[in-house]
Write a structure and sequence with these properties.
62% of the residues lie in helices and 0% in strands. α1 crosses α2, α2 packs parallel to α4 and α3 packs antiparallel against α4. The chain is globular and about 45 Å long. The chain starts with 18 loop residues before the first helix and ends with a helix.
Length: 125
């Protein structure tokens, strides 16, 4: 699995999380792992292109990440929310980082928003 994008662990979830949110997150974790594997360009994935990479898939990252942030905010602790949101943004669509961080902040709980801001500030230092 790629560094930075980890699978959801049971311990990362809040006690009262809706099972549907966890199932969506697990499915998206699998998708992120597959996309990471494509970007690594190892021989274990057949990809017919002159220049391979996730950028060729035409993924609408703002739409995908907003749906993911919504589920993530329902299922994860503040620290895990911040870490996972930043890691996935930076791995897959860093060029629109500011836009995605704003969306992640809008969809976060107050505690998750604080953790996101703290994590971003700590990374900048």
């Amino acid at each position: 699995m790629a560094a930075g994008v980890g699978f959801l662990e049971v311990g990362d979830c809040e006690a009262d999380v809706v099972l549907e949110d966890v199932e969506i997150l697990v499915a998206m974790d699998v998708m992120f792992a597959l996309l990471s594997a494509v970007d690594k360009a190892n021989d274990d994935i057949v990809f017919f292109a002159v220049e391979g990479g996730v950028w060729m898939f035409g993924i609408d990252w703002p739409t995908v990440l907003q749906a993911w942030f919504k589920c993530l905010s329902q299922a994860c602790t503040p620290v895990d929310y911040a870490r996972r949101a930043i890691d996935v943004i930076d791995q897959f669509d860093k060029i629109r980082r500011t836009e995605h961080i704003a969306a992640a902040s809008r969809l976060a709980t107050a505690a998750q928003r604080d953790a996101l801001e703290y994590t971003l500030m700590a990374a900048d230092q």
